[in-house]
Amino acid sequence: MFISTVTETVSRVEAVLDAAVQTIDITKRFGELTAVDRINLTIDAEEIFGLLGPNGAGKTTLIRMLTTVLQPTEGTAKVAGQDIRRSPNKVRQKIGVVSQAMTLDVELSAWENMELYAKYYDVRNPLRRERITELLEVVGLLDRADFAVGSFSSGMKRRLELVRSLVHRPRVLFLDEPTTGLDPQARIAVWDYLRKIHKEEKITIAITTHYLDEAEALCDRVAIVDYGKLMALGTPAELKRKVMGGDVVEAEFTSLPDEAFGALKDSDFTIQIKRRDSSLTLLVKHGAEAVPKIVELVNAKGGKISSITLREPTLDDVFLHFTGRSIREDTGVTRKRFVSSWEGMRR
Amino acid sequence: MGGNAPMKGALWVCERDIRKFIKQPFVMVSALVGPFLMLILLGSAFGGSITHVPIAVVRESQGQFSSTYLDIVRDQQNCAFGGVSCGDAFRLKDVPSLDQAEQMLRQGQVKAAIYIPSGLDNSLSNSINVAITVYLDNTDPLSAAAVSAGLTRAAQQLSTQIRVVSAHDPTVTLDTANFYRNVLYIEFMAPGSLVQAIFIASIIGGGISILFDKQRGILEGYLVTPLKQYEIVIGVLLAGVIKAMFSALTMLFLAIVVVGVRPMVDTTNFVLLLFTVFLTALGLISMMTAFAVRAPAPEVYQLTAFPINLVLYFTSGAIYPIDGFPDWMRQMSAINPETYAVHALRLLMYKGASFEAVAIDFAFLAAFTAIMIVIATLAFKRAL
Q1: How far apart are CA B59 and CA B67, in angstroms?
Q2: What is the pLDDT of residues A230-288, one digit of tens each?
């Protein structure tokens, strides 16, 4: 017993020492708006970590602080063992960053884009040549190495940006919305390449996303961020379990009187209920028992259910649970407010 | 009922364009700035008379006649086209020896030297015809023509006066000696075109590409790399200078091959010329970089950059001697870096001038460049 406790403690201490990223009360304010509000989180070495939240939630601001572009208003963080405030230059040596904006030089070839980046990081030949060849190979662009990037599809450009940020073998790779603006096929291709890179480079990857499927498909652990605050953190499975051990029931109905909705809401098995057009999503305690009760209740109140399914909770449900709203309901208001104050700060 | 009357549609299309036009006052104004500047600057430059041209006087004869001649020269007036405003044509400077006058001529301190030989007054007293020699800096063909015309007129007036006061009628003629080979007007303009090539390269190669990089987030992308801020600034400026120097040297090549400009061929001169181009390019690139990164909107930069080019170019003396400018324009040219660049290039290309001759130009350009680098660095750091 004693020995195992010690071992556990030691391994936890090691994990903290080895942490790729550790934030301590990190906060950023733009005027009156608090974009990031005292976030404390640890990203372990070699994990794929997702920051999930709607547009304007503060994900990008957090990433910009961790990548030394912005100074925190309060708090700090350690990235790859270095303090972002005290030694930003050491941090920069150890991180790779793919921002939301396309920053490739379209006039230059894929190889030239890689080569220049390698030079910024002082990666010298012959290592430079080997490294670029290896990386272009990984994302299937080696045969296009000498083509101008302007001729690439958006998926190819994203892949190139991805490996360009790896020329110097960084310890942590930050990706800000890596698949935004890509078609579904290109998105899946980028995911595959990310997994491949993660495996081959033994690197920590931190990605921000507002796509739940992306977080679920890629991430070992996910942090849910909204209004600058950390709402939940854990593996997708843990988070789902945290949804009070419940199951999700989805029902399509042809009619649903308000009375029936009210009865469902007040019933003792319902944890959460949401109505959208002609469908209902319920978070319930024991799915198998709840399904017949739901049908019964709705029928009794004069409604009619056309289909009903029971499924495991998804991250979407998790998100709904922790933030009280669906991620797809992202209102333009928060985003606009955020963007305008952001621009005000840049002036 | 539906359906507009014929041609009504054209009205709506027109209305849309006019509405948009009115909503963009800046575009409207800037469309006028160029032509208006051209009117003011070109009109003032070419319309002005060449006055106060500095001339060295080497006087080896101190008699009555030569004094009268110099008085007549001092009284010469030059008037603007249309003749409303006139001014003293020449500004005389007494110089002890011909050697010194030559040196001043070479260094561009004077545009001509009048040489009054020792026997002149005696000869005239004895009714012997005489000649006064004028050495002209003919690398400035417009000033040279004005000097030559004015001094010849003065010689004729002196002859007339002598005839009135004495029974004899010796004549005074003017020998003009071109100090350099004849420089054509198009050659006179060429240094200005070199400088303009540098400036336009700074607008396009320097400012606009930075503007795009800033908009696309590439400047911010630099910040997550280990590159230092000063390295980014120096890198950007250096690239701009290389592009501008390439542009200027191509212009020089075209001027020589296509236009037939014949600059002096001399290693020292060429090195000094390269240095002038380098300093000018660095100064102008820094200026336009600072402007580009701090411009409130890309349009502001794009629309103002070209009028700035016009002002600098026309007040630099690139196309017309500064001696012909009205006062306000002369003051502008005194603080315009392109003035010094054009002056230095002209000296180096056509006079085979030494370093001392262009030292003042270099000093001004170096000071301007240093200030602009500081401003650009600060502006850039804030933009990053």
Answers
A1: 9
A2: 988 988 878 877 765 677 888 888 878 888 888 888 887 777 788 877 888 888 877 77
**ipTM score over 0.85, yes or no:** no
For chain B, how many helices (H) and strands (E)?
15, 7
Q: Are A12 and A66 in contact (CB under 8 A)?
A: no
Instruction: List C-alpha distances in Å: B94 to A344, B113, B115, B247, B260.
Output: 64, 10, 11, 43, 37
Is the pTM here over 0.95, yes or no? no
Q: pLDDT tens digits for B37-61?
A: 888 888 877 777 788 889 999 988 8
- Rounded to whole angstroms, what are the CA distances from B296 to B211, B292, B308, B383? 11, 9, 17, 11
Q: List the structure tokens of B181.
A: 């080979």
Determine, for residues B218 and A93 on separate chains, whether the beta-carbon distance falls below 8 Å.
no
Segment 213-242 of chain B within 8 Å of chain A by CB: 216-218, 220-227
Decide: helix, strand or coil at residue A205: strand
- Chain A closest-CA separation from residue B349 CA (Å): 38
User: What DSSP string runs through A55-122?
Assistant: TTSSHHHHHHHHTTSS--SEEEEEETTEETTT-HHHHHHHEEEE-SS----TTSBHHHHHHHHHHHTT
B382 part of contact set with chain A, CB < 8 Å: no
Q: Which chain A residue is nearest to residue B214, measuring alpha carbons? A: A103
